[in-house]
Amino acid sequence: MTSSQTITVQRRAGQELLSVREMTLEVETSKGEKARRTLGLLPLTVGTSADCDWPLQDDGVSRRHCELSLAEQGVRVRDLASKNGVWVGGAQLFDGVVGEGVTLSVGSARIKVLGGEGVTELPMSARSSFGASVGASPVMRALFAVLERAAATDAALLLLGETGTGKELLAQATHDASARKDGPFIVYDCGSSPPTLIESDLFGHLRGAFTGAQTDKKGIFELAHRGTLFLDEVAELPVELQTRLLRVVETGTVKPLGADAYREVDVRVIAATHRNLKARLAGGQFREDLYYRLAVIVAEVPPLRERKQDIPLLVEGFLQAMSPPRALEALPPSTLALLESHGWPGNVRELFNTVTRMVLFPRLGARAIDPGPAAPDSGTSGVSAELHALPLREARAALVGSFEAEYLKAKLHEHRGNVTAAARAAGVSRQFFYRLLSEHSFDEPKDE
Question: Can you tell me the distance from the alpha carbon of 257 to that of 259, in angstroms, rounded to the nearest whole number?
């Protein structure tokens, strides 16, 4: 690896290795205070929000200002639609790669790329898929190698990554490759249920334990006995319930609401979140002891924009899974180049939705990537005819996706962008409303 290269693939003793040279970044605030961060394989987000990897308290910095990530020849800088931009000298930088010695202006702060000498070598899987997840890029093959080793154990696994990167598919694949494959694989989204129901969902209850408990109910830990429990968006779990979750993970026993005795459960836990858990630990929103129980093995799932070379493979897989199966030739010419030029804030899920729209409504062209309200065409009959020609599942998915986007937009407009009020009016949790916004690539709105 030369001094200018940060990511390379090497071969040693018949094994391919992903070699990553970590970069050191130094920030200097307007008050002259300095701090350093190490940039590894996953991106760092910079902004005033506590959920950013690198919080900067500066009047000129946006909540999510920019993203810094390793590129093959330096550091890639991506402006996240900030108010004041990212500047190099007198030029504004929207998306580009900078080398050692370059200084970025972010608000009144300065971030200098100092370079680095520390090198991390990660084994790479020989396969370009792991279960239903596909990826031939070095970062995905390195991830598959971690999960292949994790599947051979019963150790708790924590998957970190943005919404839409496919964490549930990776959890399912880990279960399917494990000794528990013949047991249940239970999924529970900690962010989609009201806090008042989560305790009963997790641990179960006996008849009469509370008003409305008319029958006994097993919790998801008992349902996952001798299998795997996937706790999605675990960071959304209320702090008061984290203590009870910790006890289950530590002791392998669970006590339903209204019960006097504990019951033994044999469950492998895989947890996931798109949140910055280190920031939540520092802010007291997530228990440190629970974090270390869940993070025995940590796997970080890269965003799609960091592995665009996988887009052709992903698109081909989406097309093959359609009914009837289709080939790449079913898409208009230059489609792959168009897809590879997009930033994909909604990650693989957004790519899947886009490819589906391109197949169902080829007249949309490039508009399929960022759909807005339906534009006048030849009336609704043309669209209806296309939908009527589809299998029910595909037609329903197309309509539901369109409806959800319009519904979210209407609720936000009705409540002047206030997510808490919009979620309350929609009858869902604020966390779940945020996830829908992310899935449909909405800009981050204000909140209370």
Answer: 6
